Amino acid sequence: MRTFRKLVTAVLGSAVLAGGTLLATPGAALADPQEGLGHETSPGQPYVGNPQPERDWLGSYVVNGRQVWCVQFALTAPGSGEEYKPGDELKTKWGEPIAEDVAADISYLLLRYGTTQDADKAAALAHLLHSRTSAPREGHDDLNPDRGFKDIGYDVEGHLAKLPQQVKDAVTELQDEAVANRGPWEAGLTAPEQPQTIGQAAEWTLTVQRADGKGVGDVPVKLTATDAEVEGLAEDGTVTTPADGGPLALKVTPTGPNPKITGVLSAPADRPYVQEAVNQPDSTQRVVSTGGEKQLTIEDATTAVTAPGAVHVGKVDAESQAAIAGVALRITAADGKPALRQDGTELLGPDGQPAVVTTGTDGTVSVPDLKTPQDIVITEVAPAKGYEDAFDAANPPSVAGTLQPGQTLELSLSNQANTPTVPIRIPAGDPGAPTGETVEFGEMSLLAAGALALVATAFGGFALRRRAGSANGRR
Known about the structure:
It contains 5 helices and 26 strands. The chain has helices spanning 100-113, 119-133, 156-162, 165-181, 446-474; strands at residues 3-11, 35-41, 56-63, 66-71, 84-89, 186-190, 196-197, 202-209, 220-226, 228-230, 238-240, 248-254, 260-267, 273-277, 286-288, 294-301, 304-305, 309-317, 328-333, 356-358, 364-370, 374-382, 398-403, 408-415, 421-427, 438-445. The chain starts with a strand and ends with a helix.
């Protein structure tokens, strides 16, 4: 029976970037912040102590050679040599919890666009991160230019208005996408219901679904196969769900009896986590990365059997090799038990005994869909008409062979025909018999008829010689 395991969800360690912690080289001087991908807005948002009032940067930063994303607008951007340690759950600049749906949106955006190489999308992501974490609070004067960098809020509308139109479009696109595809996700892998055949591909189904049950598109899933090969894998062993979010049909070809596939994918975490600046925790922006996503594991397995085989039996005359029709043949395994079908059931006749088949007009019969490998024995049950004399019921003709996967086993049985017979009629030799009358001796073999002919010939010759002698004597 097919096994099916539900996906297992595990949260990866928080506050890591692309699998590694950001560490500065010991003793090295901190380098100036290095901007990555994005756009600047000009003029910059006014606040007390703005070091660059002519511009603001909306985009990623590069720390230790890696792209990161900052929150808590207006604080100092991280230097490329900054040292970080795992932080806490992301909160607003004001220290308030982020709403559950907003947190889920941020997690999705970081997962899907945290490694983007598109400057427009990078600027859109930075804008949305600041909008969700540092937006001015209702009832507070958070945009007052007399505030300092620690207390100033992010002017959402002001910055958006200064961005190029393509970035504005990207902001709308990313925001709508996050709302539609936010976590939690579920993933599943389903093998075929029936056992597969080794060497023959069959369809498995992979799905990734969001909270409302609709599929999520363009999700990479890394697969590992055992006793099987999966078509269409990328060089790194991944497949990607269809752009429309529909199920992904996998062509899986078993190479052994127990095909199994496991998969791993990253899904949005319930809430994002941050990396805190160690050196300047009160003035440096916090880094939020893709390291807080969930890892979903999918798995399923089935069984596989060898390709079925077939037996093709021919029945022929031992002398002429002519086909013999109507011969009953019993099919068994080597031990005399019933042969096995591909599905493992016994090949039985209506009487519950090993099946019996009969040769057709061409003297052959085929039996398909048999389990392989398997030793097969074909035994003649009863002789065809005209072949009764040579048939030994105690030791009937039989032939055996081994079925190989996907092959047809060709077997042949021959029979010796009965010795032909003819009716014989000879003159009775009775002087009193009417002229032309014969005595019926019935049928006898050709050999007996021949012997009788020889006797008759010898007798006739003797009679002729006797008559000749008598004639000569009388002369």
